Amino acid sequence: MRSFRRQVKGIVLVKLLITRGLALILATMAQLTHIDSKGGATMVDVSEKPASERIATAQAMVSMDPHTMDLLFAGELPKGDVLSVARVAGILGAKKTSELIPLCHPLAITKVSIDFERLNGEKLKVLSLCKVIGPTGVEMEALTAASVAALTIYDMCKAVDRKIRIDELMLCSKSGGKSGTWNRS
Questions:
Q1: pTM of the predicted structure, to 2 decimals
Q2: pLDDT at site 120
Q3: Which of 42, 51, 138, 145 could hold 128 in an S-S bridge, CB 3.0 to 4.6 Å?
Q4: Residues with catalytic function
């Protein structure tokens, strides 16, 4: 009899967990803007949102051997002017973001900049800034720009240093739109 009661209690507990879990999943889905009522992927309709100036910045960190970093800044790597090519690649990456990220809106970007900051003998910070006047933000464009610039640096330096590492890809700030300004602290 005790065994039967334990089994019944176990079944009731499982049903309770499933019910609460399902409710939690449904509540979470209601908050996800790229998920429709059937759980499928959908692009958000931004046609009713007002246009505003939106700016986002992002970064990626590229780590390499100090000798490789010296060659990079001296412009003496076999593939040429790595930072100029990485800058152009990052700009192009920002412009092509909606072709790479399926639910990202195509934007008429008004500005993209890519900067590089040597932090020490082996770390290079790639900084991107994207700007648009429109109904949706440019965070994904800034992240794509930083990552494509970092990948280009890897590609053009790998013949000299196979241990290059790309880390810390992150959004640093965003402004504009309904959610306002956000800065990583």
A1: 0.80
A2: 87
A3: 145
A4: 155
